[in-house]
Write a structure and sequence with these properties.
CATH class of chain A: Mainly Beta
Number of domains of chain B: 1
Strand order of the largest sheet of chain B: 2-1-4-8
Shape of chain B: globular
Low-confidence stretches of chain A: 320-334
Largest sheet of chain A: 8 strands, parallel
Largest sheet of chain B: 4 strands, mixed
Order of helices and strands of chain A: EHHEEEEEEEEEEEEEEEEEEEEEEEE
Distance between the termini of chain B: 17 Å
Strand content of chain A: 25-35%
Strand order of the largest sheet of chain A: 1-2-4-7-10-14-17-20
Number of domains of chain A: 1
Mean pLDDT of chain A: 88
Helix content of chain B: 10-25%
Oligomer: heterodimer
């Protein structure tokens, strides 16, 4: 079985954290590894340590020549990833109002795994916390297992979304898998173009101040996603062929076998634990042999035994242990009102 | 620019000390990162970058690490030519700065009592005006 966290060939691993590590800045690693990876037959990996509760840092990844074998990855070092809730793993909280994102992916095959990302900015532009380039074409990027926590732009009339593209045409293709995005002051995930195919599998989107999923074209394949408690509609736009088993609180879930007007219940949404309670889980499509992106591990890096919708539904501990699937305390459900958007 | 407030302060820059192999990538003098000061630099950052502190308007300083949108001046639009340091800081040695085999941080010292690259400032934060060069405009700020 395949993990959703793809390894690269011949990984040259550098470390990130405090002064005991190789790098204390994402940008300096990005610049140092902006090389022709294909000619070097080498991949560059930044393994991050939670030496600090969070890092005020961001980077725009661009320029390296990559391939399906040789590419760049940002991921936590072993034992440093989140355990299913925010503030438990490697966490970036960018306050850079000029860049207005945590990580921008504008190079082929860049992959970001299992980090926590947040932005707290005061910017004159709209953007996304994990951002795709708004003009230009990249291929096969992957964002897997990430927590996007309350990206907020206090600029008047401006916003920060979760994962996506601030441009009008998301000329991008790739994989957005096993992520949880909650409480952005804009859209949760914006993705799609008529030019490329994108695969959006097993994500949980919660509490957006705008739309949950904004689908920019006909070629976004959505499977096993949950979109819940958003001010705007849970899904907007046209989903691609093959979309299956998506869940919405309202009536907008896309694809075949949708669950509409659902009421997802989580372990403790008040503490941002969006593990779906087993008794109320939604059946998901088995993606372990998916023709486009086969995988069998969830948001907490657990092997999926029973396929369900959402990022976090498998019982057991993160990485193969045990957040209980049923013995839970249920947080207070804080419902947003549809249509109550941020003042523009 | 921000919509509701502006802030001023001290920020830390990393300036690349050596050229990379291709003209369209980062070159010596390019400003690679801008951040709130941290007490550490990393092991691989100590010999390849010159670290310094500057002060001023946050948004203007944050802009200094942006890409060159024209695409023909390298990866970064803004740089501090290494010779400029020599004009400002007495004793600055460009050849030592370019030597990645040695730890040369003219604006900070490595605290030898610390196991980290824990840095101590040698000079006050600099004003970016007259220091930073805009490659697009072909002039100093």
């Amino acid at each position: 079985m395949a993990t959703a966290r793809r390894s690269a060939t011949n990984e040259n691993i550098s470390t990130y954290g405090d002064g005991t590590r190789d790098y204390t800045s994402l940008d300096t690693w990005e610049a140092a590894t902006d090389i022709d990876l294909v000619t070097a037959t080498q991949s560059e990996v930044l393994e991050c340590y939670k030496d600090s509760a969070e890092y005020d840092d961001n980077t725009d990844m661009n320029g390296a020549i990559a391939s399906a074998l040789y590419f760049r990855i940002i991921r936590p070092a072993a034992g440093q990833a989140h355990t299913g809730q925010p503030n438990t793993g490697v966490r970036f909280n960018s306050t850079d109002s000029v860049s207005n994102f945590a990580i921008r992916l504008r190079e082929d095959y860049i992959s970001v795994y299992d980090i926590e990302a947040r932005c707290t900015t005061n910017s004159a532009s709209n953007d996304y916390c994990l951002s795709f380039y708004s003009s230009g074409l990249t291929t096969s990027n992957a964002i897997v297992g990430c927590i996007v926590d309350t990206p907020t732009n206090s600029g008047v009339g401006k916003y920060l979304g979760g994962i996506g593209n601030a441009g009008t045409d998301s000329a991008w293709t790739g994989y957005v898998v096993d992520n949880i995005v909650f409480n952005p002051d804009f859209k949760g995930i914006t993705i799609g173009t008529a030019l490329q195919t994108n695969f959006v599998y097993n994500n949980t989107i919660y509490g957006c101040a705008d739309i949950g999923f904004q689908l920019g074209g006909v070629s976004v394949v959505l499977k096993n996603n949950i979109s819940d408690n958003n001010v705007g509609v849970d899904y907007n736009g046209v989903a691609g062929a093959g979309s299956d088993r998506n869940v919405s609180e309202d009536t907008t879930a896309k694809g075949t076998n949708p669950t509409k007007s659902a009421n997802p219940t989580y372990v403790n949404e008040g503490a941002f634990d969006f593990h779906i309670i087993a008794a109320n889980a939604f059946t998901g499509a088995d993606l372990s042999a998916d023709g486009s992106f086969a995988f069998n591990d969830d948001f907490e890096r657990q092997t999926i035994a029973t396929w369900r919708a959402g990022a976090d539904a498998e019982a057991g501990a993160p990485g193969g242990g045990g957040v209980g699937g049923g013995s839970v305390s249920i947080g207070i459900r804080r419902r947003r009102r549809k249509g109550m958007h941020k003042a523009r | 620019m921000p919509q509701t407030y502006r802030s001023f302060g001290v920020f830390e820059l990393a300036v690349l000390a050596v050229d990379t192999t291709k003209e369209d990538r980062a070159q010596a003098g390019d400003i690679i990162t801008v951040r709130h000061p941290r007490p550490f630099i990393g092991r691989k950052e100590a010999t390849t970058y010159i670290w310094l502190k500057v002060f001023g308007d946050e948004d203007q300083i944050r802009t200094l690490k942006l890409a060159d949108t024209h695409g023909w001046q390298g990866k970064r639009r803004y740089c501090i030519p290494l010779y400029r340091f020599g004009q400002i800081v007495p004793g600055f040695d460009e050849s030592q700065a370019r030597d990645t085999a040695r730890l040369y941080q003219p604006f900070m010292v490595y605290d030898e009592d610390d196991v980290f690259y824990h840095i101590v400032d040698l000079i006050s934060p600099l004003d970016i005006h007259g220091l930073v060069f805009d490659k697009n405009e072909q002039r100093f700020l």
